[in-house]
Amino acid sequence: MTLVQLRHFIVLSESGSFAKASKLLFLTQPALSRSIQALEYDLGHALFDRIGRRIELTMVGKQLLSRARRLVQEADSLKAIGRQMQDGVSGIVRVGLSSGPGAILSTPMLLHMAQHHPRLQLEVARGNTELLIHALRAQRLDAAVVDIRALRPAADLTVSEQVEMSASFLCRKGHPLDEVGVPVPFERLLAYPIASTPLSDEVARMLTERYGAAANPDDMVTLRCDDTATLVEVARSSDAIVLTIKAAGRDLVPLDTVPALNATARFGLVTLAHRAEVPGLRIVRELVTRLLTA
Amino acid sequence: MTLVQLRHFIVLSESGSFAKASKLLFLTQPALSRSIQALEYDLGHALFDRIGRRIELTMVGKQLLSRARRLVQEADSLKAIGRQMQDGVSGIVRVGLSSGPGAILSTPMLLHMAQHHPRLQLEVARGNTELLIHALRAQRLDAAVVDIRALRPAADLTVSEQVEMSASFLCRKGHPLDEVGVPVPFERLLAYPIASTPLSDEVARMLTERYGAAANPDDMVTLRCDDTATLVEVARSSDAIVLTIKAAGRDLVPLDTVPALNATARFGLVTLAHRAEVPGLRIVRELVTRLLTA
DNA sequence: TGGGCTTACGAGCATCGTAAAAATC
DNA sequence: GATTTTTACGATGCTCGTAAGCCCA
Fold first, then answer.
1. Would you say the pTM of this structure is higher than 0.90?
2. CATH number of the domain at A166-264, out of 3.50.50.60, 3.40.190.290, 3.30.465.10, 3.40.50.150?
3. Which residues pair with A265 in a beta bridge?
């Protein structure tokens, strides 16, 4: 018994003749004839009476027809669901965003989903990289977007959609240091509160090499917070200077420090290696790339 | 997407490895591997994560598994119902019995069904041959057991299970004519009431040829009734003599008339030609043969 | 005689099993 | 090195389409 045979059975019962049904099924008459014969043999009983040039459902055929209909319908539904999940237009995706990506992506991502993929559930988790990776490994997340420089390389993780974003010291418009076209010596920054997320050793090393011991984050940073968005808000409403990627605060002013900072952060989408992706992740993936490179 | 593939999917998800599943499915490992691959391709998404030598259901796989289970289960059920109807162990059979067969078959048939096929509905209709054949053509009966000599041959009717049964004049035990081993001249019968169902022209002709004009049923038969069982009961409780098949009244005594009657009735099971039988009819068919030849 | 279903036969396609390769532990 | 999955390849089997046969109006 085959799903194809059941489809033939159904169409034949509806069209009332092998000739018509075979056309509807894009088959030749003999092929349909054999298909029905095979089904009848398999079920152990004739489904149709061949009365001269007319056919008619047998008692058994009538009883089995309704069941065959339901079966085929469910098969179609199963396949449709499979394809739907492939498109990622429905289902659930759980994405973790670390501080920087969170500030840039959270709002536009949720917005985009609400507008363009109403049937796709998106769960955004915020947290530091270590926490997110742990959740990813525990399969409580499907993906995480983090600074991959803060990520210890691991064989069970795959990084994709990597984007490098330039970082800088940022201040509010109208800040005392906001003098257009005028480079600012690093020392002048220290007159203001410096805000930053916890920085990796790599970044700390770069800072001290460039600006001296005073740039050691342990000393330099006065406002430390996991959440970049909060830091940006602080810089926006005060004279505090925030060290972060420029894209996180587009309404803030990047300061031209001397020597130039020339720092970047490298964001990437981390998933478990050798694991099939949740279908909806395809959309998230594209979105992340688009939003970060915009 | 194939039912076979879905079965493979289910077994694989339960066994947890291609190797085990392939053994359970009586397949080689590569065959199973390809089957799953084909299904995954068809559904548009991986169903299993291949993690080293271990496999694990993907999110999509988990969602589709339950549906696949239900689908396969219903397919099995459909097939089972088909086969069950084939065996005829359930369903409904409507059989018409004319006078003679009714007397012999009604009770034992209903009894047998009640005892051995409790899930098979049997409807027994009694009536004369003409009435039964009409009901058969109108598809209000699935079969009729009648004297086929009283049946006008017709292309749309099929006769099977033909059995010839000897008929005789029967009287009760202890009847004045019941003298063991002593043949009875036909004329002596006429001293008693003669009971019979309406007889066909063929039988009438035979009677007059053998015993003379006095044997013309129109004159000879004094008790005429459609129902053989009733006639037998009359003969059982009176001196009436009944002309019918011996099997209809096993407790009655067949009379050795001179010349010998040597009459038979030819019973057969009539169905519509070119029509698939109701499944349960197989059992009825066997039962009729068995009861009539016993 | 024509329309409709079935049987016969050769071709194409899918699935299978065996064997070899790749990958993991 | 052993076990498990995947890929390669030749063989079997199934289903299809064309053509011929059969049957009923």
1. no
2. 3.40.190.290
3. A165
Indicate yes or no: strand D within 7 A of the C-beta of A111: no
Determine the Cα–Cα distance for residues B258 and B220; give it in Å rounded to an integer: 16
Q: Is the pLDDT of residue A89 over 70?
A: no
Any A CB within 8 A of B54 CB? no
Q: Is B17 on the interface with A (CB under 8 A)?
A: no
Measure A10 CA to nearest chain B CA, in Å.
14
Contact between B170 and B263 under an 8 Å Cβ cutoff? The reply is no
Chain D footprint positions (protein CB, under 7 Å):
3-8, 15-20, 23-25
Asked whether the beta carbons of residue A82 and residue B279 sit closer than 8 angstroms, the reply is: no
Cα dihedral sign, A56-A59-A60-A61: positive
**B123 CB near a chain A CB, below 8 Å?**
no
Q: In chain B, where does the domain assigned CATH 3.40.190.290 lie?
A: 166-264
Domain B91-164+267-293, CATH number (from 3.30.390.50, 3.90.25.10, 3.40.190.10, 3.30.43.10): 3.40.190.10
- Helix H or strand E encompassing B84: helix B59-87
β-pairing verdict for B143-147 and B263-272: antiparallel
Q: Which nucleotide is closest to the Cα of B54 by its C1'?
A: D4
* Residue given tokens 């209903």 in the structure block: B110
A80 in contact with nucleic chain D (CB within 7 A):
no
The answer to whether B98 and B129 are in contact (CB under 8 A) is: yes
- Residue B88's pLDDT band (cuts 50, 70, 90): low
The separation, in Å, between residue A92 CA and nucleotide C24 C1' comes to 31
Distance of CA B259 to the CA centre of its chain: 38
CA distance B10 to chain A (A): 14
Record: contact A49-B83, CB cut-off 8 A = no
CA distance B107 to B17: 59
Which residues on chain B are in Cβ contact (under 8 Å) with A43? 79, 82-83, 86
Band of pLDDT at residue A163, cut at 50, 70 and 90 = very high
CATH 1.10.10.10 fits A3-86, yes or no: yes
Which of the four pLDDT bands, split at 50, 70 and 90, describes residue B146?
very high
- Those residues whose C-beta lies under 8 Å from the C-beta of residue B152, and which sit 6 or more positions away, are none
Mean pLDDT over each residue of chain A, to the nearest integer: 89
Q: What pLDDT sits at residue B90?
A: 64
B29-65 per-position pLDDT tens digit: 999 998 998 898 888 888 998 887 788 888 888 888 9
Residues near A253 by Cβ (< 8 Å), separated by ≥ 6? Answer: A170, A171, A172, A173, A175, A178
Averaged confidence pLDDT in chain B: 89
Whether residue B242 has pLDDT greater than 80: yes
CA distance A293 to chain B (A): 29
Q: Which residue in B2, B7, B42, B45 has the most chain A C-beta atoms within 10 A of its own C-beta, making it the best mutation to test that interface?
A: B45
